[in-house]
Design brief:
0% strand, 2 domains, UstE-like, mainly alpha
Length: 267
């Protein structure tokens, strides 16, 4: 078994950082042109695609070919689907209320404030969460059962995220759903199937990396991602004030799991 190529991995880090800066820098320029910082949500998935491509190219002479291909394809498919979905969903809409609230607190130069608070912050999180991809690309042992378990977890996550997003979009497009609560399909078992799926995607990618040394050192990345989704800027922020806007939401919360899919509770 060959030793881990730490020098080659270290040499790749400037390229992955550059990939993040290029994606978010371009997105920032687009946001200033269209007057909406919500476009950064489209770049979130695409940034991981750019990191995966940069790591794949940098590890061409190192790393197991199968693991490298998996760590290119898995985040690539996830990121492209997510970016296209958010782009279609936000077409024709104004600024996201989250960014409106943030920009209302801006002092001094608003563009510089947005760049620091939105783009640099998301870039740092993106780069840290992607560490399993970056480290795993250079791991030399071949795939193990843990590698394929990771692919399975990733597939479950992509299913929940893609199907949950599609069900929610159909619900929103139906005029009869105005003011109602989506509690059918995957949304019957969890209030956030797309967030649960997102967490599974990153745990699956992490398992592919963890299946060979030193992937275990990156375990904090999926932990952080899951925390953001379940406790940080994901679920809590989205549900804030929802009961006031949708009369049936409080009852939906009482009978439906907040994150992990479970059978509905009787109320």
């Amino acid at each position: 078994m060959a030793a881990y190529p730490w020098a080659a991995f270290a040499a790749s880090l400037p390229f992955t950082l550059l990939a993040v800066l290029l994606v978010l820098g371009t997105t920032f320029a687009v946001a200033l042109r269209v007057g909406r910082h919500a476009v950064v949500d489209v770049a979130w998935g695409l940034g991981f695609v750019a990191i995966a491509v940069a790591s794949y190219l940098a590890s061409a002479d190192d790393g197991d070919p199968t693991r490298r291909l998996l760590l290119l394809v898995l985040p690539g498919l996830w990121g492209l689907r997510l970016g296209l979905h958010i782009a279609r969903r936000s077409r024709g809409h104004g600024e996201d209320p989250r960014y409106e609230a943030l920009m209302s607190r801006a002092t001094g130069n608003k563009a510089w404030f947005a760049f620091r608070r939105v783009y640099l912050t998301q870039g740092a999180v993106m780069w840290f969460v992607s560490l399993p991809i970056q480290v795993g690309m250079f791991s030399t042992p071949g795939p193990t059962w843990l590698t394929w378990l990771g692919v399975l977890v990733w597939a479950v996550g992509l299913f929940f995220e893609a199907v949950g997003d599609a069900q929610l979009q159909r619900f929103r497009d139906d005029p009869a759903s105005n003011g109602q609560v989506l509690d059918t399909g995957l949304w019957r078992y969890t209030r956030h199937p797309n967030y649960f799926g997102d967490a599974c995607v990153w745990w699956g990618i992490a398992l592919v990396a963890v299946s060979a040394w030193p992937g275990i050192l990156t375990i904090a990345s999926p932990v952080l991602m899951t925390w953001f989704l379940a406790r940080g800027t994901g679920k809590p922020l989205l549900e804030k004030g929802m009961a006031d806007r949708r009369p049936g939401y409080a009852d939906y919360v009482r009978r439906t799991s907040g994150f992990f899919p479970l059978p509905p509770r009787k109320t």
